[in-house]
Every structure is written in structure tokens, then in C-alpha cells.
Amino acid sequence: MIRAKIIGLGSYVPERVLTNDDFEKIVETSNEWIVSRTGIMERHIARPDEDTSDMCVAAAREAFASAGVAPEEIDLVIAGTVTPDFRVPSMSCIIQKKLGLLNAATMDIVAACAGFIHGLSVAQAYIASGTFKRILVFGAEKLSSITDYTDRSTCILFGDAAGAAIIGKSDDDSGILAIHIKSDGRYDELLNIPAGGTHLPYVGNGSVDPKLSKLHMKGNEVFKYAVRHMGDAALRVITEAGLTPDQVDLLVPHQANIRIIKATAARLGLPMDKVYLNIEKYGNTSAASIPLALDHAVREGRIKKGDIVLGVAFGGGLTWGAVLFRW
Ligand code: ACO
């Protein structure tokens, strides 16, 4: 069977930083509460004129350089995002135009924080079937555009970022050993944007509360499902690959909350020095979280050739997924 692998990675975070001190001036909160309950110290926020696709373009340029691949070699673009530039056309079409990826098909995937792993699973299937040879997968969000900055229970969590991965065929024993995605739409109301779709169109004429066009989350309930499903999904891919948790060299989890990450590591029996963390600097960047963390972990030398690397994510939908690589 043909195995897919990541052959290039890139990422981008906007310049502007919002610290916990800044939030103390916006809502009733404290640095102490935010750090102890979430692990977040700061997050990066895009400029008003900076679209999610612009962040993707910057991330992709790094991925092209690290893979040694030219834009015209890409035959599929998959963008995981809940904050596309437009509802129509897809963000992947906009990225195609901006990067000149004229030999590619395109699609967007809406799976919230699990968007990158969902995209990766589609890419893996296309590579395994031989349909496409070079696939560009993004996880990217401008969450600041859907954040209610009067809601202290959500606004302190989110940041903006983009990550890009180029996927190709593996010629050795490296690559994706196992990947798993799953959803449970029964819990759709735990994390949603109530207005803006066909169910409750948001027209901005005062008939719909503007706050309903922002992200709403029942945080403590999402927390419980996140801990359970991230652990289950991680164990599933480890088992499918014929390995045991102690063989994992690095866990790269979705950076949603330090307590969720610690609970997932504990469930797998992994010490925290085998867990990659950047939540303190970037907060929860949803679909961008895993590719951003993978890119930084590789560039910092935390991931080396031959390492067993576990990615695991959970998000609104509910959606979740896990992927196990031999790097
Ligand atoms: N500062 C101070 N107090 C706060 C803040 C704040 N920023 N936010 C909430 N509180 C208060 C609440 O009002 C509440 O007060 P009360 O007891 O007087 O009512 C108290 O803190 C506890 O609130 P909880 O919501 O129970 O706090 P919890 O410990 O659960 O932490 C958090 C909240 C950080 C949101 C957590 O639940 C969490 O991380 N959930 C999971 C988030 C997640 O993983 N989402 C999925 C991905 S996101 C996506 O898909 C886009």
C-alpha cells in the first residue's frame, strides 16, 4: 500500500500580540485565572485587512521552500477552516489564485479544530489511491473575526494563525502509519455560531443580535468530551499501527487548554516532556493549531527523522481525529 507523508511544512502567525494584561482591560478577568485555567499567556491577532487566505499564502511559501516543490506540482488544495474569506468561493480557490496553483483541484473542510487532521485524512486517501501526487493541506483561522470580545469565557482563548503541509508519497518506512477521524453531531450546540447560515441569516439590520454571529461555547461540557475523545482517538491510531503509547516520541496535541492536554497525556501514560506545547504563545488557533505546532517542533529540533509523532485534535461539531507518523 502507498503511504502518504508530510514532505514540507510551513506556518504563519500575525504580528500583533494580545496579552492577558490586555484582556484585563477588556473584560473582567485576570492573568492568574487565564494562565491557571487555560495555560495561555498571549495570542496573535491578524490585521483587519489580513484575510485567512493571506496567512495561508505565507505559510505555504515556507512549506514550498521546505519541500523543494514548485506551486505547479500541486494537484489538490485542501483548506481546513471555519473562518474562510468568503462563503463562496471556497478559501482553497482564493489560495489557488494567490499562489498560482493552476494545476490543482480545491476543496474546503469545515471540522473546526479537527480541520487539519480531517484534511490530512482526505489527502492520505488520495495519495494511497494514486489519484493525486502532491497535495497542499492547510489548517488556518482568523478566529478574531468570530470572537465575541465581551464574552470572557471564550475571548481569552482564541488566536489567529495558519499552517501548511505538503503531502506526497513515502519512499521508505516514514509517513502516516494510522489516521482516524470521527464526529458526533448530536452535540452541535456545545460549540457553534448561531446566526449567519440558512437557519438564522445574519443581515445586520438589527433583527438578529450581532453576538449570535460570533462563536458560542459551553466550555466545561466541551472540555469533558475533548478529554475523552482525544484519548480514545490517540489510543486507536497507536493500536492500529501495532505500537504502544510508550513508543510515542512526541505528542503534538491541539493547543486548546493545558488541562485538556495534560489529561490526554496522562491517559496515554506520557510524561509532559514528550508533549509539545506552544499554547502559552498562541492560544487556541483551531484548525491551525496542529500544523503550526508540527512546523515549530520540526524547526526547533523536537521532531527528528524516525520519531513516532502523535497528533490529536478535538473541536466543534463535535469533531475529532488523531494521526500517527513515523517522521
Ligand atoms: N476570567 C475569570 N473568570 C472566568 C473567565 C475568565 N476569562 N471565564 C469564565 N470565568 C468564570 C465563569 O464565569 C465561572 O464563574 P462562576 O463559577 O461564578 O459561574 C467560572 O469561571 C468557571 O467557569 P467554567 O466555564 O466552568 O470554567 P472552566 O474551568 O471550564 O474553563 C474554559 C473554561 C477555559 C473555556 C474550559 O472549559 C475549556 O478550555 N474548554 C474546552 C475548550 C475547547 O477545547 N474547545 C474546543 C476547541 S475550540 C473550536 O473548535 C473552535
List the helices and strands and how they pair.
Elements: E1 4-12, E2 16-19, H1 20-26, H2 31-38, E3 42-45, H3 52-67, E4 76-80, H4 91-99, E5 105-109, H5 115-129, E6 135-142, H6 152-155, E7 160-169, E8 175-183, E9 191-192, E10 216-217, H7 219-240, E11 250-253, H8 258-268, H9 279-282, H10 289-299, E12 308-315, E13 319-326
Parallel strand pairs: 4-5, 4-6, 11-12
Antiparallel strand pairs: 1-7, 2-3, 6-7, 8-13, 9-10, 12-13
Helix pairs in contact: 3-4, 7-8
Briefly say what this structure is.
The chain is an alpha/beta fold and 327 residues long. It is built from 10 helices and 13 strands. Strands 1-7-6-4-5 form a 5-stranded mixed β-sheet, with helices on both faces. A 4-stranded mixed β-sheet has the order 8-13-12-11, with helices on both faces.
Question: Total strand count, please?
Answer: 13
Q: Give the CA-CA distance, first to last residue.
A: 18 Å
Major sheet description: 5 strands, mixed
Quick one: overall form?
A: globular
User: What would CATH call the homologous superfamily of the largest domain?
Assistant: Thiolase/Chalcone synthase
Instruction: Flag low-confidence runs.
Output: none
Return the domain count.
Answer: 2
Q: Which architecture name of the largest domain does CATH use? A: 3-Layer(aba) Sandwich
Query: How much of the residues is beta strand, in percent?
Result: 15-25%
Please estimate the helix content: 25-40%
What is the CATH T-level topology of the largest domain?
Peroxisomal Thiolase, Chain A, domain 1
Count of discrete alpha- or pi-helical segments spanning 4 or more residues? 10
- What ligand molecules are bound, each kind once? acetyl coenzyme *A
CATH class of the largest domain: Alpha Beta
Rounded average pLDDT: 97
